[in-house]
């Protein structure tokens, strides 16, 4: 006589329930937004059928395309400048000793914790004090402030896993400090630099508050254009644009995290 073992009961702890609720709260609004972006009705309240019309209209909207161009100019310019300055800052803080190093380290990462509204107001007051005309370039200057801190932080974390003896060996073999930096240290830092740049690109592309304070006439960015349109109500074309922004931001963030995780895995092995 065979006696089958008792079946194990499925046990769901409060941690699992809490995790499911958190995912629902975070992603249900995005799912609803995506659903209504395909709504044939020009009003988001009632479903009248499926359509791609709103996505097609985005690529024919001159204001949207102009705002997208401004956002890309700001993001690429701010990230490019911050990549150079942030890398040099991280290397300088890790490799050299100088007076006030601890104070400088704390100040350099303050934009990570300072509210965006404070950075926006401070930048606007600074520009007004020197009578600098607001334009796309003032947005870039403001975005460099926080992009620099994010890239510097990511590169600094990467520097903790870099063997300093490799750079010393290059110097002992006759390389100049610049050659040792370019040929030995920089290739090892490159995954961290790329991950930091991708993170900063997403933050710059999605920023509204700082850009709205430092933008001149005719220099709207994409988030600013979205905000100006939703004042009269949320339309399906804005839903479609928001979905595209969410997808692009998620892809860039996923790539940045994949690069960072792959680098960490290779270092531990």
TrEMBL record:
InterPro entries xrefs: Bact_Polyamine_Transport, MetI-like, MetI-like_sf
Record GO cellular component, one term: plasma membrane
PROSITE patterns membership: ABC_TM1
Family per record: Belongs to the binding-protein-dependent transport system permease family. CysTW subfamily.
Any one GO biological process: transmembrane transport
Organism, as annotated: Calothrix parasitica NIES-267
Domain ABC transmembrane type-1 as annotated: residue spans: 68-256
Organism phylogeny: Bacteria, Bacillati, Cyanobacteriota, Cyanophyceae, Nostocales
Name of the featured protein: Binding-protein-dependent transport systems inner membrane component
Highest taxon of source: Bacteria
UniProt membrane topology term: Multi-pass membrane protein
Membrane-traversing stretches: 12-38, 72-94, 106-130, 136-155, 238-256
Keywords: Cell membrane, Membrane, Transmembrane, Transmembrane helix, Transport
Annotated compartments: Cell membrane
């Amino acid at each position: 006589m065979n006696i089958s073992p008792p079946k194990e009961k499925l046990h769901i702890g409060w941690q699992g329930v809490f995790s499911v609720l958190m995912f629902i709260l975070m992603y249900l609004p995005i799912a609803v937004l995506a659903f209504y972006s395909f709504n044939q009705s020009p009003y988001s309240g009632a479903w009248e059928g499926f359509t791609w019309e709103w996505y097609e209209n985005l690529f024919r909207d001159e204001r949207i395309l102009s705002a997208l161009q401004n956002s890309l100019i700001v993001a690429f310019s701010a990230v490019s400048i911050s990549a150079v300055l942030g890398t040099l800052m991280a290397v300088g803080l890790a490799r050299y000793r100088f007076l006030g190093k601890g104070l400088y380290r704390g100040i350099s990462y303050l934009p990570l914790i300072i509210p965006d509204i404070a950075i926006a107001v401070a930048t606007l007051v600074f520009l007004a004090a020197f009578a600098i005309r607001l334009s796309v370039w003032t947005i870039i200057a403001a975005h460099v402030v926080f992009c620099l801190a994010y890239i510097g932080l990511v590169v600094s974390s990467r520097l903790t896993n870099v063997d300093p003896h490799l750079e010393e060996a290059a110097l002992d073999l006759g390389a100049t400090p610049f050659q040792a930096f370019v040929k030995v240290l920089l290739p090892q830092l490159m995954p961290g630099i790329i991950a930091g740049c991708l993170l900063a690109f997403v933050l710059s592309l999605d920023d509204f508050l700082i850009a709205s304070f430092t933008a001149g006439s005719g220099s709207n960015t994409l988030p600013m254009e979205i905000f100006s349109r939703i004042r009269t109500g949320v339309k399906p074309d804005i839903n479609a644009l928001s979905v595209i922004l969410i997808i692009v931001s998620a892809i860039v963030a996923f790539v940045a995290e994949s690069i960072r995780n792959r680098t960490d895995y290779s270092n531990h092995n």
